[in-house]
């Protein structure tokens, strides 16, 4: 892991071996942005390279997931798969009961080889009903969602200002959008980012 | 007990007059009538006339309660109206659980336990008022009347912005529940916000096929690696400062796993 990190570090800072594209400005150039082709999906049909649902069981490196449309998915997690659960995490953090969204490549045997897995990720809008110690009580369509501030993790983005670990300028009754990780089986969420319009 | 019963018509009447005035004379109430559960019950087109009719009924009941002579059927009429409120609340919480009740002016909160408690209290007061005799004021009775009125107002979410929200804001200002603890650690999400706004990320994002694979800090720089097809995209994000133009990117042939 360390040698790989060193190799990547030297590539981005010093232009080491194996580099395909990098410039002094720090960007790849306009052609790079449009160079990649995105996969074509017929409108109205499900994207075969995407899956969502809740983890029923975990066998080896494969997650058995029941989708909300009652379709089962086998999702294989490999070394290069990114897993998110309030931040990048290891495979051991995936638990039965977790909700997930996964994107990857569908294998001929029907298994989705995942490139990215987001566990319990939620994106909710609402009004702050109350603020108590390290918690926002969010009113989401009349239902209360308890949003926990996680020290060192949670940030607030006010309008176009840079993200800040300081959430103290949030006010009762203001509108917010919260990106976070749901605690399965509860109405509670750990906050990754709070977006505030002002 | 007799005094308590005699007091009720006046508290109920005051509350009904307030509710009726809001229904009959506020423009905002009429403009938002279509969003209440009432619109679901009678149809959007008939919501405003129905609202006016209810307002008139409230005004009528309030008038007979307020004006002498006192007779048992006045309390019965108020009880019938309160029962109607309860039935309507039960309907709206079942049929239109996301709509507001439109009881006392506009607000966006759906029917909840407070609305039921308010209608229940009104019903209990109305039933008590059936056995009312002419009212002879005394200090304890006036205090009780005030307490009942405050309870009715406190159970009205329509008024929260006048007292509950300022109270909570004051409490937050005094207790500072989200005060930051001093820390030199930069949360990953803060670095990722800088990354997302950077020209480096904008040019590389179309090639990225995964979310963050690995992230580590070294020499004041946060490195984040992403899969980009068969290659790896690695970004260098300075930990100090938030200028997105300082972010650098390199696209590297995927190294053989160590």
TrEMBL record, chain A:
Keywords from the named record: Signal
Signal peptide bounds: 1-32
InterPro entries per UniProt: TAT_signal
Protein name as annotated: Cell wall protein
UniProt source species: Nonomuraea dietziae
TrEMBL record, chain B:
Record keywords, A-Z: Membrane, Transmembrane, Transmembrane helix
GO terms of biological process kind: methylamine metabolic process
InterPro entries, alphabetized: Methylamine_util_MauE (IPR009908)
Localization of this protein: Membrane
Transcription regulation keyword on record: no
Membrane topology per record: Multi-pass membrane protein
Signal peptide coordinates: none
Keyword Isomerase on entry: no
Residue stretches making up the Methylamine utilisation protein MauE domain: 3-130
The protein, known as: Methylamine utilisation protein MauE domain-containing protein
């Amino acid at each position: 892991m360390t040698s790989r990190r060193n190799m990547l570090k030297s590539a981005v800072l010093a232009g080491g071996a194996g580099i395909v594209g990098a410039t002094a400005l720090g960007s790849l150039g306009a052609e790079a942005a449009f160079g990649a082709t995105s996969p074509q999906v017929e409108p109205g049909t499900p994207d075969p390279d995407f899956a969502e649902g809740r983890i029923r069981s975990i066998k080896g490196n494969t997650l058995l997931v029941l989708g909300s449309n009652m379709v089962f998915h086998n999702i294989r997690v490999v070394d290069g798969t990114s897993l998110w659960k309030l931040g990048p995490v290891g495979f051991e953090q995936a638990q039965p009961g977790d909700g997930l969204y996964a994107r990857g490549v569908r294998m001929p045997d029907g298994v989705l080889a995942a490139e990215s897995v987001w566990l319990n990720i939620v994106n909710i809008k609402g009004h702050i009903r109350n603020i108590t110690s390290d918690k926002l009580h969010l009113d989401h369509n009349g239902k209360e969602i308890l949003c926990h501030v996680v020290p060192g993790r949670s940030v607030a983005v006010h309008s176009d200002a840079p993200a800040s670990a300081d959430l103290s300028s949030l006010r009762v009754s203001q509108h917010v959008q919260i990106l976070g990780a749901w605690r399965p089986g509860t109405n509670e969420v750990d906050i990754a980012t709070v977006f505030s319009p002002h | 007990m007799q005094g308590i019963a005699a007091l009720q018509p006046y508290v109920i009447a005051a509350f009904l007059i307030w509710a009726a005035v809001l229904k009959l004379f506020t423009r905002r109430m009429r403009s938002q009538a279509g969003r209440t559960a009432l619109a679901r019950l009678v149809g959007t087109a008939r919501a405003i006339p129905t609202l006016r009719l209810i307002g008139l009924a409230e005004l009528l009941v309030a008038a007979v309660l307020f004006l002498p002579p006192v007779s048992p059927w006045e309390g019965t009429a108020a009880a019938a109206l309160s029962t109607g409120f309860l039935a309507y609340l039960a309907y709206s919480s079942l049929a239109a659980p996301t709509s507001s009740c439109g009881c006392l002016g506009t607000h966006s909160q759906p029917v909840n336990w407070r609305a039921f408690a308010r209608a229940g209290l009104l019903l209990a007061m109305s039933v008590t008022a059936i056995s009312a005799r002419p009212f002879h004021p005394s200090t304890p009775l006036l205090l009780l009347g005030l307490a009942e009125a405050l309870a009715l107002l406190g159970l009205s979410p329509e008024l929260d912005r006048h007292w509950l929200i300022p109270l909570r804001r004051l409490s937050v200002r005094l207790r500072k529940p989200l005060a930051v603890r001093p820390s030199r650690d930069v949360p990953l999400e803060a670095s990722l916000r800088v990354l997302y706004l950077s020209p480096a990320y904008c040019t590389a994002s179309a090639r990225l096929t995964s979310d963050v694979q690995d992230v580590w800090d070294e020499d004041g720089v946060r490195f984040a690696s992403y899969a980009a097809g068969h290659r790896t995209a690695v970004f260098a994000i300075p930990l100090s400062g938030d200028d997105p133009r300082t972010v650098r990117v390199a696209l590297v042939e995927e190294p053989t796993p160590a």
